[in-house]
Every structure is written in C-alpha cells, then in structure tokens.
C-alpha cells in the first residue's frame, strides 16, 4: 500500500511538472504579449523606447529558456510573478479571487449532487410510468442547454419577472442562489444519469425482492443501497467535474458579474497575461492531481473489492 | 429643458444652431420640485474601470468615476462651450498663447486635507504635461508643447509652453486634467488602478472598492467649490453613489426596470423603447468629438489610392445604418466631427451615398469585377479586413451592414472577431487591417489632432507614429495642418483651420464618418438632474432622488 | 458537461438493457435520427428550405417578430432567423464533427497504443493524458483559438483537443478489456502479428463503446462551441452558427426573444438526438 502511495504521488508530481512545462510553451506561443497590449494603447502615449524599457523591467526580453528557468525558480520560491494587466502580484490576485470561486463551485457541486439525487429518486419512485420516463429524460434536456443561457434565463425569470432574488445589492444568500443553480444544473445532469442507472441496477438485484418481502419500504432500501453504490461512480467522475466546475465558474461569474478566478482567467486569456495564466494552470493541475489522488486512495475504503485490483496494479 | 424636448434634438439643432444644447436634464414629473438631500444612487456600469490616472480618463467607465471625485481648473459650459471659472477664479493668456497664469480659488482642499494651491496645481500639470518616467506616468494627450510651471505665489500658478498652445485653456476643463492630491502623484502608475488611492477635491470621495466589481462614493460634507455659475452650491444632494459593474446588457436593463438599480450606462438603441414604455427615461448626451467612423490605413496598398477610398465612401449608406440599428439619439454624421463640436463644417455633400459613382471610381482605379463578384487588379482581390471595436455601440452589426453595402460595389469586407490581444497587435499593422473603427470625444478643435496626429492616436497609422510596421505612408500636409490647429493662438483662425482639416480629411477620403456617437443612459423616473459635461461624461453633483 | 461513467460502462448498460424492454420500433430513436437527418439536409442543401439569405439582411426589416413571411422572425440587421438557422447547420454540424473527429482519432490512437503496449509506453502516454486532463479545458480551448486564429474550424479543433484525453482513457480501458478476451488471446497464441491482431480483433471490438461516447461528445461539442461564442471566441460575422446565434441573440432576450430561443431549440433538439443515438449505440455494443 505504501509503495502504491509513493508511486501515485510520484505520478502526480510528474503530471504537475508536465502541466507546468506544457502550459509554459503554450502560453509562449500566444501571438501578442501582455506588455504590448497594455502599453501600446495609444491613450498611454508611450514611445517604442519606453515600451522596450518596460519589457526589460518585466524580464520579458530574455531568451525563452532563461524565462522558463526564472519562472520555475520563482514558483519553487512561491512567487508567481506580476500580472501585467492588473499591475499587482499574481499571488494577491489569486488570494483575493480564489475563495469566492471555491465557495461558488463547492456549493455548486453540493447542489448538483442534491439535485441529481432528487431527480434520480423521482424518476424511480414517481407513481405513473409516463411521469417516470419524463423525469428520467430531464437530465438529457438539462445537459443540452448552454450554461450561459441557463444563467440569463434564471435571472430573467427569478430576478426580473418574479422579483424573488435581486441581482443588484443582494444579501449573502441571494448573491449565491442563482449562480449556484446555474453552475449546478449542467453538472447535475450527468450525475443524475449515473444515479438513475445505479438505482435500476439495484432494483434488478434479487435481494431487493427479499428485503421488500420482509416489509422494508422501497424508498428506504433504494436510498441505503444507492448511497453506497453510487458514490464510487461519482468519485470517478469527480476529477473530470473539477474541470467542468472551473469552466462553469468562468461563464457564471461573467453572467452574474461576480469576482472570482473564472473571470480572472477569462480576462487574463483575453489580455494574454501569461503570468496569471501560468499560475492558474498550476493551481488547477494541483487541484486535479489532488482530487484524483484522494479518489484513488478513498475508493478501496468504500468498496473493498477494489483493493485486489490495486494490489495487482502495484 | 425637459427630457421630452431632448428627444427632438435634431429638430432643435436645426433651429438653434450647433451648440444650443442643455446639459442638465431635468426629467420626471416632479422636476420643478425642490431637490431632496440624501439617498444612494445605484449606477450600473458596463465595464470595470482601468487605471484612474486622470489623463487616462477618456475611457467611459473611468470618466464616470473621475468626474465625481476630481475638480478641474476650469469648467466648460456644455450649452455655450465657453470656458468658465471653477477651481481657477480667473486666468490670463499671453497673446501668443505660450504663457498661462491662473489665480486659484482660496479655501479648496483635497479630501486628504492638502490645500489645492499653486504648488499642488503646478505638480499636477508638470506630471500631465511631461509625464514621469520613474513612476511610469505617460503624457496627457490634451496638453501640447508643455515646458514648465512657475509658482508665483500661494494661489497663483503660471505655465510656460515651448510653442503656442491655444487648446490648453479648454484642456484644463477636461476629465484628463482632473486635479489630484500631490500624494497621489507620488505613487507608482500601477497603483492608480485602485480607486481608493485617487484623492481629489471633488464633491464625492471613494469610500470603498471591490476591484472589478463595485465601488462606493460618499458625498463630501465640506464641499463648497462648485463652478461659480452653478445654482447649486455646497455639498452634493446624494449621500452615496454605488457603482456596480454589470457586463451583460440584458441584466443591466432588467435590473433597472425591476427596480434594483437607479441609472445604467450604455443602453443599446434596441432597448430604448422598452425603457420608455414603462415611464423610465432614456438620457443621452453628445460626445462632441470625432464621429464614430472607419479610418483607412493608406499604407496598405489596397486602400492607398484615393479613388478607392472615395468609392468606398460613396458605397456607404449611413442612412441605412442609422435607421436600421440606431435611434434618434444617434444622428447621421455630416463631417469628420460632430455637428455639436467646435469648428464643425457641414460636408454632407462629400458623403453622399452613390453606388454608381463608387463603381465608376473603382473602374477608373483599375479594379474590375472578377468571376466571384469581387473586384480584382493585378491578381489581387479587393478584400479588406476590419476588427470589430467592442466599446462602440453595435459595432459588430454596423460593420456587417457596411460589409453588405460594399459587397454591392464588388468590395469584400471581412469583419473579424478577435481576442483583444490579437486585435491590438493586428490593428497596428496596416497590412493586416486596412481600416479600423474609431471615435474620440473632446469639445475642442484639438480633438482632430488627437485622433489623427502620428504622435497621438495615429488613426491612419503613419510612418514614425505608433506602429513600426508602417512601410512608407506619411501625409506631411495633414500633419502640418494638425500642428497648426494645436498652436494657432487666434480662436477664429483656429476654427477656420479645423474646417480645413475636416475638408482635407474627406478630400483624401481618409475616414468614412458614420454617426455622431452619444452616450446613452437610462434612469428611473425618480432620478432627477443628471448632468453631463461637454463630452457626455455624467456628473452626479446636482442629482437628487425624489421619494419613490 | 455530460460525462460518461468511465469506470464501468458495460455492466451498467447491460443491466439497463435487461431492465428496460424497448419496443421493437423505438419512436424516440427514430425521431432522433429524423432530427439528425433534417439537420444534415439543412447543412447540405440550405437553399431548398428557405428563400431567404443566411447572411444578408434587408434594411428596414430588423427585429420583426415571427410572421408568415419570416417564420421565426428577423434579427438586428433584418436577416431571417429561420434562414440563419438553416444556413448555420453546416457550420454547427461540421464544427461538432471536426471536434469529435479530432478527439476521436487523437484519443483512440493514444488509447489503442497505450492499451496494447508495454508498461513503459503505456505509463508515458497515460501521464501525458493526465496532464492534458489537468489543464482546465476552457483555458486550453481559448489559448488554442488565440494561437490558431478565429474561425469555425479552429474553434472546432480547440474543442476537439480538449476531448482527446477522455477518448484516450476510454479507448485504453476498452482495449485492455478486449485484449483479455479469450478469442484475442487465442489470436495472439496462434501466432498472429501484433498489429494485425490489433487491427482485426481489438479495434473493431473496442470501437462500439467509443463510438457511443463520440455521439455523446457530438452534443457536448455543440454546447462548447456555443459557450466559446458567448465569451467572444466564436466564428467571425456574418457566419451563422447556432451557438453564436444563441450567444448574440441573448442581448435581445427581453425585447426580441425569438433571436435566442429558436437557435436554442435547434441546439437542444440536435443534442438530445445525439444523446439518444449514443444510448442506442451503447446498448448495442
């Protein structure tokens, strides 16, 4: 087991390093550069010589491998460099925006799981057959809607028509309810599909009939077994969901005008603010690697059958 | 002037001449009531502000904030466009317009307690006129030929210029010349992206800011130095102004109509009707500068021939663009600059829509229609690229209509969408972008120079200007003319030169003016007396809220 | 967005097949194929379905609500929305198709090699795939678009590039499953050359699940392209593309709802159809 742990951590480190190098190369390939974009704006009135001076100041005139070395060294020391566009250290920018995005996406994930469970149970337990199949097809419909569209429609309906939740000067709860819903709906859709499948499977198993014959309520049996059986597939796609959450945050934050890492990402791409993007890639890769490591380590605890597979792999 | 009469602006203009426009718009049923003190104005802004160094104040979101927190030496009356006293009680200008002396009003202070005196004003203009390399401050585009300042006594400051600078007096009235505390000007340039660091002497001060999201201004209780000609003196009526960045158009307008906000900036023409249908007000003000246009880059061989540029001017149907996409607040352009601008001459005869003449001109220039309907010459196709300009109203749709119209005479216009980075880079290369949408607002003939002079915005991209990609294009005659506007001390002659410049620009067909760009706001009926400076930047000093 | 349960794609499905007794003729599946067929017909011969132009508007005709003349109304420069949708089919469908092709070929090739090679190669490829998964997809898409330039094809390539990793994981798992099957072992055992066995036995048998995933990705790609359009990274005007139509039309949501609602319906129908077909493909494999 400890061997396995070590090798998983080693793999994680390799992935992290590769992500760093690949993103560095990718960002270097962007055609413009942040300094040009910010300072060659005619309103700034800077001469080409002055812009060259600024370039030296940011260390953007060195050969690419020197810049790579510098960037690695800075990251090792915990310094992510300077955002050319915002004019502040990248670390500050992230420190300010990360909590908001973490809150939004963790609430979004929780809401998505809750919504998915609700849909799955409704699809299995609803009284009429046509109603059940209608509910069962809801996830496909939800998955067929663009996220930004969901956000704008939710605002139009709940904020402007029904006037239930203001989007301007909302309180803490109001501020989060629509964005969380926007983020949760598209993520809930695939989860609900997994849950529905899982419920079908359980119902097909022979022991269910036995337990029911003994008088246990159907909902309770489903709920208990479902929880155990569905956690694993959810965990497996958690790593993939991580990326979806960030993409969803970009869109949600833009639609609702919220500050957060998503909006920072979008603006940094647009302004080709490479220092910011490099930090975001490393952060996201770190999160991805960490989540996957956790999932791999937690999976055998939930389903002991997996221990054998791991033993074989290690 | 009430709001309803403002709608018929074009008619009013014809009667009253180019500059007879009220700036203060009293609207709503209770406009005659006495103003009420107190309340918070919730203002939805489309974009976050950028660096708030006052000379960068031309950007709409920046000016919406700077105009409330800074005062200027002089005030340009938007009705008459005359320059009136504000922080400067009086001034003298030498005959050659090389020496300016200002007497400063006593008792004015910045919100950090520093007095607004000769020394602090001198420090402001030294920075704006010369820039500051160590701290990274650029030179202000409204100040030409600046040499140095002299503190004559506590309240008298004198400015010296290397050459005549007749535009300087008006230049002291613009947002770009807002006065800030000397302490602010000692911070590195990048720090000025934080609004709380900007200390001015204005009627409001920055109370707090969430960068990129919201900003709160508080009224200054001891404010007592509004321009002398204002009826309202003393502190502002509002207690607070809350700026909230709301990029989605539909969210801004929806929030206003649902009662969640009081005033919003950037209302698209297609949304005006729904605002008015529920009794809310559409408020627009002209920017009085270079009209919304597309400017050619003659360095590109495709548009180097004046006949091609003329042909495209005649192939452009501005009436169709304005009637399809815009409203009565967007008058059709009749010259390079707006009909409300200083020095305007009506050149609508040069800008007629005449596709037949366009075809004749293109034929004469040697461009013949190819098999695919696009004109060709020596194997090259007459196919032009243009990037849409995101801040301009409906620019994507405008360019698409233009593209349709030009297609009728055999010219292909590709409207490019691009990330701001690639657009910024490509827009500096005439080979990639033979034309570009542009506009500048400033109520002085210098605005023509601001837009076209190679050392300023360099709209035509000349050699020796902003871009090192330009092969050879220089128009020495144009540049000489622009320099003369910036340095002709005689006001009347200066307006004459401005007229010459407009004629020259259209004679060479360097630009195709499309419409006179306004800034359009929408406000709730209980919001009264939003005023605008001469270039449509809002001022909330006189604004008050009647009980809802 | 839509994610396939990669861990046990087959067991879950088999049980579903047993559980649900599909009637012989499945109406939803037929309907799905009809939707796709109609969309393809729009793409191939748009002029048969509308007399209006997909790119040129009529001045004075702007923002008209649905009518007999313009079934789905007109947009801000007087273009017929129905014509925009019909002429947009080619761009949306080919965009999604390119995206899926890029992800499918790239991913399947990687997965096939990884799943049938020695440990070192397998590990190397899978770490690369992990790396690709660890970089946020949207960031990768935006960067690729900026590097390649704007345009329907480039946007599609960018969207496809981000799905390479999941295709690779899925096809590797399938290859490993099939390789362990007796008849494949037998093929190796009877002296079959590696590449030959791979081509004749492993590839066709592992393709079913992957194809089902590809159908699912088709819908995902359309949505991803729409999201990029919303962020300002769509095709340049006046190209009609469904995602872009939704994104641009959203500005008119309160006054001219037809601009965003009808293209939205087109996307929903096609995505639903693709998902339904994906389900059927999985059930068969």
Describe the protein's architecture and organization:
The complex is a heterotrimer of chains A (314), B (548) and C (285). With 314 residues, chain A is mainly α. Helices cover 80% and strands 0% of the residues of chain A. Chain A has a single domain (90-313), classed as MetI-like fold. Chain A is flat and about 85 Å long. Chain B contains 15 helices and 26 strands. In chain B, the strands form eight sheets. Chain B has a seven-stranded mixed sheet, sandwiched between helices. A four-stranded antiparallel sheet of chain B has the order 5-6-8-7, covered by helices on one side. Chain C has 285 residues and is mainly α. Chain C has one domain (27-45, 68-284): MetI-like fold (Orthogonal Bundle). Helices cover 71% and strands 0% of the residues of chain C. Chain C contains ten helices and no strands. Chain C is elongated. The model of chain C is unreliable at 1-23 (pLDDT under 50). At the A-B interface, helix 2, helix 3, helix 7, helix 10 and helix 11 of A face strand 11, helix 6 and helix 12 of B.
